[in-house]
Design a protein that fits this description.
The protein is mostly beta strands. The protein is 7% helix and 61% strand.
Length: 196
Amino acid sequence: MFKKMLLGTLISTVAFAANQAELNVNNHDLEGQVRLDMKQMGFSSLEGSYIGARILNGDESNSDRINNTDPLMEVSFMVQRPVEQVPGLAIALGIKGEYTKFDGDRYAAIPLGIEADMKLPFIEVLPLYVGGALYYAPSVLSFQEGDDYLETRLHFDVEPIKNGRIEVGYRMIDTDVKNRDVTYNDAWYLGMRIDF
């Protein structure tokens, strides 16, 4: 069921002029993400603004202190701008809504964060990128049984074809609840990203 939902979401993004569709996997986890360019959707005044959705089907083997976990579902909004003083660098500020259940605890949070993506300047034949993200929600922005949220992500990409990237990355998603410290996912992954 989860795989059908993920595949349907990725296919339907083409109809809505998606800016990005991304799929990340490892031996235990499956993650799908889409980001829609608000300008391409007809909101010309929102250039550089994106709405998105992500589903991470995390496995207990890549979690800490979790025995039974549901997928982590996310909706997001971010604004991205190039940094004029540093060619190839783009910085984004974002807000997310997160929800999951694990071991009977319902977890929700609204983290705020920053993302960066930089095209490395020294290879033009096969473009290389590095990037990362940091999102945090203190207890005041955590709901249900949630106490706080911290997500860090680092990735290295190669672009073998125009608008198509292969990615090696690392993510850590810490989803503490009121009665214990919990890491929802802590794993390396291999991914593919397509920009439309």
